[in-house]
Specification:
The complex is a heterodimer of chains A (167) and B (108).
Chain A: H1 2-22, H2 26-46, H3 50-75, H4 87-110, H5 128-139, H6 141-161
Helix pairs in contact in A: 1-2, 2-3
Chain B: H1 6-26, H2 30-54, H3 64-95
Helix pairs in contact in B: 1-2, 2-3
The chains are: A mainly alpha (167), B mainly alpha (108).
């Protein structure tokens, strides 16, 4: 059951990610990016990471993608006009990609741990959020507060950047 | 059908990363390049969560250190998207374009 789910979700995720790159209209790209993120959230759930899956839907498929769509519509971007392709750059990019994919396949093949099945969990019930929270607030309290400062700095920076006259 | 292994998830994560890289390398619209960056970040998250599930602790729980790292990555990525899109809007106000070939002022 989980195996079928894994293949279906991976296929949906990879196909819609390819459509993000293939579509000429940015709105279509953004919509298929949402689908890709939702399939990824479901993949997180198949790995028993319920909290991360929920955060993925809330933050990525929700907040980040709304921001993307808002900017696309604010800038009123139309579908890209076809331009002359730079064939050398295109060929170079495809060569880099091919090499990269071959490298990843080779690394995953040669990794001994990659052939192991996932060990069974002894947990009963769904205490995932509580466990993530315990780890976060006991082991990573300082990074958590630093992240808060980072978000504040980003907010101030965005306000400055979006003023009408940049000095 | 054989059971799922860590390698399955790592391979899917690698393919997602390659698709994101393809978006960055092959597309010339700034917003699509940005979406490619998001795909690459999410591919890293997927392999982190797969490793968390693989490295079960002595208590029989997933390794939550990795999941906390994913939480931090998602937070930083959200901040990055906000700042990046603000820069794109500021750039668009100046130049009325999001096409990278029209933005060659810093080219040597």
């Amino acid at each position: 059951m989980l195996t079928i789910l894994f293949w279906v979700l991976s296929a949906v995720m990879l196909a819609s990610a390819m459509l993000v790159v293939a579509f000429r209209n940015p709105v279509n790209s953004a919509m298929s990016l949402v689908l890709s993120f939702i399939a990824l959230a479901a993949l997180f759930v198949t790995l028993d990471a319920f909290f991360i899956g929920i955060i993925q839907v809330l933050v990525y498929a929700g907040a980040v993608m709304v921001l993307f769509l808002f900017i696309i519509m604010l800038l009123d971007l139309k579908a890209e006009a076809r331009r002359k392709l730079n064939l050398a750059a295109l060929g170079g990019g495809l060569a880099v990609l091919g090499g990269f994919v071959a490298l990843i396949v080779q690394v995953v093949k040669s990794l001994p741990a990659a052939k192991e099945e996932f060990p069974a969990l002894t947990r009963t019930g769904y205490s995932d959020v509580a466990d993530v929270g315990t780890t976060l607030f006991s082991g990573y309290n300082l990074p958590f507060q630093v992240i808060g400062v980072l978000l504040l700095v980003a907010t101030v920076g965005v306000v400055i950047l979006s003023r009408r006259t940049l000095r | 059908m054989n059971a799922l292994t860590l390698g399955h998830y790592l391979l899917v994560s690698g393919l997602l990363f390659s698709i994101g890289l393809a978006g960055v390398l092959l597309r010339r619209n700034l917003l699509i390049i940005f979406m490619g960056l998001e795909l690459m970040l999410n591919a890293a998250n997927l392999s982190l969560v797969a490793f968390a599930r693989h490295g079960v602790t002595t208590l029989g729980l997933p390794d939550y250190n990795a999941q906390v790292l994913v939480f931090f990555i998602i937070t930083v990525a959200a901040a990055e998207v906000a700042v990046g899109l603000a820069i794109i809007v500021a750039l668009y106000r100046l130049r009325q374009t999001t096409h990278v070939e029209d933005l060659d002022k810093m080219k040597f």
